[in-house]
């Protein structure tokens, strides 16, 4: 046997033994590339989905921030109107105050938090009924003033609630004014 035959035989054996290993490695590489392609596609879908969600959240946040000053102002004005109405014990000026609240409501209700919108309307409606009951002689209605509205406002704008002492001060101020009339 000469060197050429030995080289040929060795080459044939290497091909016969190495070819399946080589082919197997190539197939694995191809499968891995296909898997990587599918995985990459899925990752991109998830990334795109999260990017869309994030963009929507940013847009919503910007919208809320854009109206923040007006929302805070509307909540402050609602609180001020509530306070004026609570302190107003004169039934003659109450109708003017009620009209003022209604006019203000028409211009500002969209800036209020949902609970505050509901609470404001409920308060001015209840207060009108309460005053009518008091005027008709039902003295049990005097102490039924609803003091939940300020907490609704504070919760809506995420400020600390009024303390019990502050709420009692409103009731006391109101009682003092009523006795003065």
Distance between the termini: 133 Å
| Rg of Cα set | 38 Å
| Number of alpha- plus pi-helical segments | 6
Count of discrete structural domains: 2
Strand content: under 5%
Order of secondary-structure elements: HHHHHH
Q: Care to count the β-strands?
A: 0
Describe the sheet with the most strands. Answer: none
Helix content: over 70%
- Uncertain segments are none
Global morphology: rod-shaped
What does this structure look like?
The protein is rod-shaped and about 130 Å long. The protein is mainly α and 181 residues long. It has two domains: 1-66; 68-180. The chain is built from six helices and no strands. The protein has helices spanning 3-66, 68-87, 91-108, 114-135, 149-157, 164-180. The mean pLDDT is 79.
Q: Which characteristics define this entry?
A:
83% helix, mainly alpha, 181 residues, rod-shaped, single chain, 2 domains, 6 helices
């Amino acid at each position: 046997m000469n060197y050429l035959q030995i080289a040929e035989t060795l080459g044939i054996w290497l091909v016969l033994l190495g070819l399946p290993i080589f082919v197997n490695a190539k197939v694995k590489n191809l499968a891995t590339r296909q898997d990587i392609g599918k995985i990459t596609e899925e990752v991109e879908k998830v990334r795109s989905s999260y990017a869309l969600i994030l963009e929507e959240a940013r847009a919503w946040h910007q919208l809320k921030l854009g109206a923040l000053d007006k929302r805070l102002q509307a909540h402050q004005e609602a609180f001020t109107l509530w306070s004026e109405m609570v302190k107003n014990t004169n039934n003659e000026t109450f109708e003017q105050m009620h009209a003022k609240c209604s006019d203000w409501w028409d211009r500002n209700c969209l800036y209020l938090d949902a609970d505050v919108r509901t609470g404001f309307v409920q308060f001015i409606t209840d207060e009108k009924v309460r005053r009518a009951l008091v005027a008709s002689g039902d003295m049990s209605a005097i102490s039924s003033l609803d003091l939940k509205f300020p907490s609704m406002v504070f919760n809506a704008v995420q400020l600390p609630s009024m303390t019990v002492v502050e709420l009692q001060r409103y009731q006391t101020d109101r009682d003092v004014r009523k006795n003065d009339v």
